[in-house]
Design goal:
Elements: E1 2-5, E2 10-13, H1 45-57, E3 68-71, E4 87-90, H2 116-120, E5 125-127, E6 132-133, H3 148-159, H4 163-172, E7 181-183, E8 189-191, H5 194-209
Parallel strand pairs: 1-4
Antiparallel strand pairs: 1-2, 3-4, 5-6, 7-8
Length: 215
């Protein structure tokens, strides 16, 4: 099987192919990523860690299994109906760019969804020395430890994004229509603009890319 996310633009192999069935429990949780075994063709551990780190970066709080999917490209289905290249897909990233799940109740509320005040002040690291990221989740384990190789894998990809690309991400989402306000340089309240989200993205990216893990 492979992992695929729209943000990484990479497919990560997991383990040998299996039949894909459509049923109520076809989703997967982030805790199940521990079962990925590179010794049998699965994704290397740094790539799995990078996926977890990406989830923390965007504050993917609603990580219940139903929001992830096990899928197969049509071209990867062989004559026997078996999938030769399964994909793990993060299908629902609606509750992101906020502060993650409610840390007390493990529930999704308004601050778990796009929220400039929450996301722009959210720390990337829960424990920087241990390389433990800050991630408040609904289903899986919160605040996972990330390897240095995983941090570097994602950092390289985030650094490849230009300001124009990041700006387009928030502009296309019409994120300024949330109607949020922030305090400007003159001390007065003003509407949150796309450029504010861009600046917050760059600050969070710098916290991730400029840090180095001892492990």
């Amino acid at each position: 099987t492979e992992i695929y996310t729209l943000s990484l633009h990479d497919a990560l192999p997991i383990y040998p192919a299996a039949v894909i069935e459509t049923r109520s429990d076809e989703g997967w949780t982030f805790d199940e990523l521990d079962d990925v075994d590179p010794d049998v063709g699965g994704a290397p551990r740094p790539e799995v860690d990078a996926l977890r780190l990406l989830a923390a970066f965007v504050a993917h709080g609603d990580d219940k299994g139903a929001n992830q999917r096990l899928v197969c490209p049509f071209a990867a289905i062989d004559a026997a109906g078996r999938c030769t290249r399964p994909l793990l897909l993060v299908a629902d990233l609606g509750s992101t760019f906020g502060r993650g799940a409610n840390p007390l109740l493990s529930r999704i509320d308004s601050a778990a969804r796009p929220d400039f005040a929450a996301w722009s002040t959210l720390p990337v690291w829960e424990d920087a020395r241990a390389c433990r990221v800050h991630l408040s989740t609904r289903a899986g384990a919160s605040n996972p430890i990330i390897s240095e190789a995983g941090r570097r894998f994602l950092a390289d990809r985030l650094n490849a994004l230009s300001d124009a690309q990041i700006h387009s991400l928030f502009s296309a989402a019409r994120i300024e229509r949330l109607g949020e306000t922030t305090r400007g340089a003159d001390g007065r309240q003003r509407p949150v603009a796309v450029d504010d989200w861009l600046d917050a993205f760059r600050r969070r990216r710098a916290s991730l890319t400029d840090h180095h893990c001892a492990n």
